[in-house]
Amino acid sequence: MITPRQITCSILSLLLLSSCSLIDSGAPQRIVRVKAVADPRLREGNPRWAEEVGGLVEAASDYFEREFGIRLLTRKVAAWPVMDRIISTPSLMSRLKAEVPLRDAEGAYDLIVAFTGESVNIYFGGRARVDRIGNCRDGLGNYVVSSVSAPFRYRGPHAEPELDVVALIHELGHIFGAEHVQDSTSIMHENFDYRSDFDKRSREIVLKNKYCPFGK
């Protein structure tokens, strides 16, 4: 026999589970529409290049969604430039802004991310870069150039970020307004190798700029 007490407890349990599902629905608070492009060096002899590029964005998105409630949604992956190899990241950024618009026949994008397989670093070819440090007055940055140093395979939302994912996270920090810091443990330090955390100040900046419009 089911007693009134058991019925009451069952109803309360269902209500509790329902409220928890609403709280933990995982719905991101900010969607960033991304177009990702891969340069000739990254595509060369690599039939998985589109999967790798999409996986890098997805891995960085997992981090930003978990830490800041920001979800990167890759709407398109494309080959660019089609032929020319550009070994300088400043030159790559300049051409990217000139030739890859924020809107094409397939839709509009907030962010264009160009991945290069060239061996670029601070001493040769330049470093990864963004078009500007984002802020609410001028808008968030729209373009990122990030290097890929090794083959990448997406391993799920809870995988420890690999170096190339960390590099992209670092650049996305700039897009949302974070600058380089002296804290050597921070992912926003110039030498961010395998760092996995933002310092307190950089975290506050990203959260402050989370809802800022993207520049146009």
Question: What does this entry show, briefly?
Answer:
This protein has 216 residues and is of the alpha/beta class.
What do these coordinates show?
- This protein is of the alpha/beta class and 216 residues long.
- The protein contains six helices and seven strands; from the N terminus they run αβααβαβββββαα.
- It has helices at 4-23, 40-43, 49-68, 89-99, 163-175, 200-208; strands at residues 30-38, 70-79, 103-104, 107-108, 111-116, 129-130, 143-147.
- The strands form two sheets. The chain has a five-stranded mixed sheet with strand order 2-1-5-7-6, with helices on both faces.
- Strand 3 (103-104) and strand 4 (107-108) form a beta hairpin.
- Helix 3 (49-68) crosses helix 5.
- The chain is globular, with a radius of gyration of 20 Å.
- The relative contact order is 0.15.
What is Rg?
20 Å
Strand order of the largest sheet: 2-1-5-7-6
Mean pLDDT: 88
Helix/strand structural class: alpha/beta
What is the element string, with H for helices and E for strands? HEHHEHEEEEEHH
Low-pLDDT residue intervals, each spanning 5 or more residues: 6-25
Q: What oligomeric arrangement do these chains adopt? A: single chain
Shape type: globular
Kindly, what is the distance between the CA atoms of the first and last residues, rounded to a whole number of angstroms?
Answer: 67 Å
Helical coverage, percent range:
25-40%
